[in-house]
Amino acid sequence: MMPANRRGRRGFTLIELMVVLAIIGSLLTIALPHYFHSIERGKAQVERQNLAVMRDAIDKYYGDNGEYPQTLNDLVSKRYLRSIPEDPVSGNADWAIIAPPDNTKTGVYDVGPATASAVPAAEAAVQK
Question: What residues pair up with 95 in beta bridges, in sequence order?
């Protein structure tokens, strides 16, 4: 049998619960910004890796065929890439196409992220 003063006291008081929630809230305000920043860094790293893979495929295509691919889809159709990777930062498969510096050659010389400062693929095709 329980003592008389402990009979009605089961669980935590409201003050104890509020203190625990305040501690959890304080820890979350410290941890969440670091978590979201690490996700953004991870996306940027994946984007750099995707660019490196596509650039390597363009170089191999040029080495094998003596010309640059006309589109990124040529790399997929000739199996230099399984598919055109998605840009994790923007969330789509649009990449900026960079034309060769030599005006006598055409095709995809390099790729970059499709941002406002880069030349989108549609504009690069019009410029040729």
Answer: 113
Q: Assign 117 to helix, strand or coil.
A: coil
pLDDT > 70? residue 69: yes
**CA 64, chain centre distance (Å):** 30
The tokens 């991870």 sit on which residue? 42
Tokens of 9: 């006291």
**Structural domain boundaries of the chain?**
16-112
Q: CA 34, 40, 41: angle at the middle one, nearest 5? A: 85
What average pLDDT is seen over the chain?
86
- Residue 13 DSSP code: -
Question: H or E element: which one contains 98?
Answer: strand 95-98
Q: Which residue type does 81 have?
A: L
**In this structure, what token pair is assigned to residue 61?**
């295509």
pLDDT digits (tens, 9 = 90+) for 98-110: 999 998 999 999 9
Whole-prediction pTM value? 0.70
Distance CA 11, CA 70 (A): 71
pLDDT digits (tens, 9 = 90+) for 78-99: 999 999 999 998 888 899 999 9
